[in-house]
Amino acid sequence: xxxxxxxKESFRKGSVLxxxxxxxxxxxxxxxxxxVFFFLLNQDFSLLNWLALPADIHALAAKPWTLITYxxxxxxxxxxxxxxxxxxxxxxxFLFYFDERKLLGVYLxxxxxxxxxxxxxxxxxxxxxxxxxxxxxxxxxxxxxxxxIAVSVWAPNHTINxxxxxxxxxxxxxxxxxxxxxxxxxxxxxGGNLAHLGGAFWGLVYALQxxxxxxxxxxxxxxxxxxxxxxxxxxxxxxxxxxxxADDIEYNRxxxxxxxxxxxxxxxxxxxxxxxxxxxxxxLLFKMGK
Length: 290
Fold this sequence. Notes:
This protein is mainly α.
């Protein structure tokens, strides 16, 4: 089995968490390799512009798919490294309390809410007027923060070990993260921090509603199932035809032969008695008597 086949098999049999990591990593590699070709051809690299979420509403209207694609898009190596590590560690904890379909729902809806917070802030607040035309959002951070906040609200006292810090409860991880995102709005990564807050908002809402017995990820999972059915190849129904006339003729022929044998045995009994029958004739008579 080749490396490519092993990757395909791992993706097919892997969990939702594994697939999310593969998709993010696959998009990253595709974008970086494409960037090399654009560079060699001395062309402006425009693929990012087709996948990243623009802050300008008019630009978004021309590329509505970016509200989804941006949450799988990374360009910097450290950006994707830390995001995937965070996704793996906290995704594992999330799956300890929830199932895979909920993980996918929280990831996607967390990313959508993060994008909406980003768009809303950049189009409402005067601070972003001068930069809105060329501002874009990319990365899985909002989706991952939604997962972090959701599991932190659901299991606030779950303890993890952080490098250089040691054991710490999830509720403190969530609170510190939120504080950093709020004060980071005035930094150079204002858009990213706003998106983080959007993802955090969704994670909070999801966990609080789930406590009440309402799974708010059902809708998007049903939508995904419906889309999957559209692209799933239909199974061909094989129809076999039987020659019933031939079957009936063969059946009747065998019955006639069998009946003739029985008649011969019965005639022999009437002439010579039962004891005159051979072993095979007695077995035949026994079978027919069942």
